[in-house]
Amino acid sequence: MEWSGDLPDWLSDAARRAFEKEKLEPSDFDDFAAMLMASRGVPDEAGRVPVRLAKDMVPARMEPGEKVSLLKLGSLANINAIDSSQSLDFAPEGITIVYGSNGAGKSGYARVLKRACRARDQSERILPNVFSRTGKEPPPQAEFEWEMRGDHLYAPWKDGSSSPDPLSAIAVFDSKCARAYIDQENDVAFIPYGLDILTELARACDEVKARINAKLAEHPYNAEAFRDFDKSTKVGTMLTALSAETDPDRVKALAEMSEESVQRMAFLRKSLHEENPVAKAASLRRSKGRVEKFAETIKMSLGTLGAAAANDAKGQLADLQEADKAAKVAAEGLTASEDVLKGTGGVVWKDLLLAAMRYSDEQAYPGLGFPAETDESRCVLCQQPLLEDGAMRLARFADYIGQEAEKSLAKCKAAVAASLSRFEKANPEALQADAMLFEEMREIDAPLAESALAFAKALSDRKAKLIENMKGVLWAEPTALPEPILDKLAELAKRLEEMASELDKAATADARRALETEIRELESRHKLSERLQEALGSIETLKTRARLNECLGQTDTRKITIKGSELREKSVSTELRDALNRELEALDVHQLRVSLDTRGAKGVAKQKLKLDIPVPKAGETLSDILSEGEQRSIAVASFLAEASLTGNKSGLVFDDPVSSLDHIRREKIADRIAKEAKDRQVVVFTHDLFFAKSLMVSAEKAAVPCCSKTLRFASGKAGVVLDGLPFEGQKVPARLDALRKLAHKAKAEFENGDIESSDNLIRLGYGRLRDTWERLVEEDLFSGTVMRFRRSVETLRLKKVDFGDDEFIAVEEGMSRCSRFAHDTPVEAQDPVPTHEEFLADIEKLDGIAKSVKAKAKVTEERRALVL
């Protein structure tokens, strides 16, 4: 755990998982690879986050000689269907047997102990009662009491929170404690506690490495992808050296081609293929002249048809309308003074009068004014003698024409007529007629050519609208002109001159080489602009590959190998070998022996603990070689061997240690556990009643205290704790006490009027009483010399055996009487069910025989001790 502090996060997570589960799985390796890649910038869609191995996840370091003993586990909440009011007490010395059948709650208690004591196997989740959960239950929790250095200590525990360090001194055994595997040399090797984590870490590195290499294969990079670029150009040089460090912005800048650059490239391509660049230069200068003339025409047209001219014309029309209104007012005054012809004061009338006045002044009566007043004067219109009334009327008409309103009106009409004349004389149509100009412009700057053509058309449309306005009365806004193009035309003219100058230069070899270099650069940039996304994608691929290659660096197993060698030197020792062999021998697996194999590898001494069994063949697994029982025996042996070398005497907890074992090895393990219980507390969870009995027998032989608990499922609750084993596992005295309770219960049912229930209890009781007579024969009459399922006949126990006819008769009569009421019989031969008093009397009779046999056995043992 301390060494893992310098590991990357993902590898520390791998160490945590290797500690918490028997073996890492493919899904773990997928997680590690994703977390490692994410740490180097390769996104993980699942968002997996590593959890480092922490101090509170592993057993705390205990001082040599330290001793921690469990006292109590209670107040369990949200743990399976276990009744939270129950508590499980443990004897601080000797053996505590916790027996429970399937579904009784044994696994729930055991899982809490594994989690709180920081056992290796943390793969099993602790669930709430799945039949009543709502999904909002708080985490599983419990309360612990333990003894340490003479003090009774207490602490609550909650799943997901760190447990007290002293609890981690309690070593918990389960089926996943064996750490044997077939190594690279095809030996079945044993890995001491902790070293298997390093083995799993090395495997994790290899598996993650394979996944990263697979990811690299998904992101291939073709180094030849851009070999078609000219390496003498800036673009070619950059693409040749493309790497994860290449700046994408620099690539984008080189790929950026303005319209001018594209046009320049096209011009150079064409120019460098010209056979006579001098003639081409002259042609360009002629084009330049046409552009300049076109620009001058536009400029002149804008002077005539532009915004200023339009605004002036608009003002002139407005002035004309005002003058016309004023003239009409004056005309109304003229016609109102006397009776005149219709239309007097109107336009036609004014034209007539003005013509008459001009005729009078210029021809009929020059110098005499209008009307001419002489004796011989005549009217210039009717040429009749001009009488006084007529002369006065013509004089009044002449005064009217000479008034200011009429003068202003005449002036405004003249201004409008002048503007109309200018608009009509403008010739923007000529701009559209120069087809050659537009063709040349398209070759050099197609967008500008289209803009120029559109501008010319807009000028023609504007002219028509302005003329329409001047001939009408109401003003309508003329056609708007596009964006000004004079500056662009000037730039084009300048460019044409520059191009002509370049062609002039192209006539010399040195200048031509410079132009050829320039076009190569432009063409490379243009090609890059077309393949920009490919280039940027290649950079991203190279970055991804660089990140993945960084990840590969973290899959190097050398650091793990060095640490493994260091720990192996400390832990793979003759002491561990000897301890393992002692344990294997104690468990009666003599065919399995462990040897310490030391060999040299590249000048370095290496050693391993090897099981001496036939060499596996290719493809064989450990289960092909060792039976499940042998593997379980190795697990128990390794657990006890390593516990013996820890230096402390804290408690041991076994969870179903004899699963898959035959009765012979069960007894061996019971004897070994009893021996271990002389020096430390031992708690054994089991669902095997024979094994529980074997433990009690072994404890008795070893003179080790032994207490037992039974877990039951009752009233919908699991984990209900009862003292002692079930009736089948109890000795004679305990059975007699249980039978007395059954008799009293039958009596209570009878007195409550439930005769049938009372009879059923008594029939059940006689069946159990019959079993107790049988147990009396095993335990007391034969003093345990021969026991069912035990492989040995312990002849030394015969020193207590001495019985005669009285005992024989008592046993025979007791068994026969019980059989009459425990077995089903024909209706016509059926005996009435005894009363509870009779049942109780039969119980006491067996008790009397048991006490008599024990007393006689004691006397016999003392007598025979003198003989031996």
Residues in β-strands, percent: 5-15%
CATH-scheme architecture of the domain at 730-868: Up-down Bundle
> Segments where pLDDT lies below 50 for 5+ residues?
600-605
Major β-sheet, in short? Answer: 6 strands, mixed
Helix content: 55-70%
Structural class: alpha/beta
Q: What keyword list fits this structure?
A:
868 residues; alpha/beta; 6-stranded mixed β-sheet; 4-stranded antiparallel β-sheet; 27 helices; 14 strands; 10% strand
Can you walk through the features of this model?
With 868 residues, this protein is an alpha/beta fold. Among the domains are: 97 residues, no CATH class; 115 residues, no CATH class; 98 residues, no CATH class; 139 residues, Four Helix Bundle (Hemerythrin (Met), subunit A). The chain is 56% helix and 10% strand. The chain is built from 27 helices and 14 strands. A six-stranded mixed β-sheet has the order 6-11-12-3-13-14, sandwiched between helices. A four-stranded antiparallel β-sheet has the order 2-1-4-5, with helices on one face. It has a four-stranded antiparallel β-sheet with strand order 7-8-10-9, with helices on one face. Strand 4 and strand 5 form a beta hairpin.
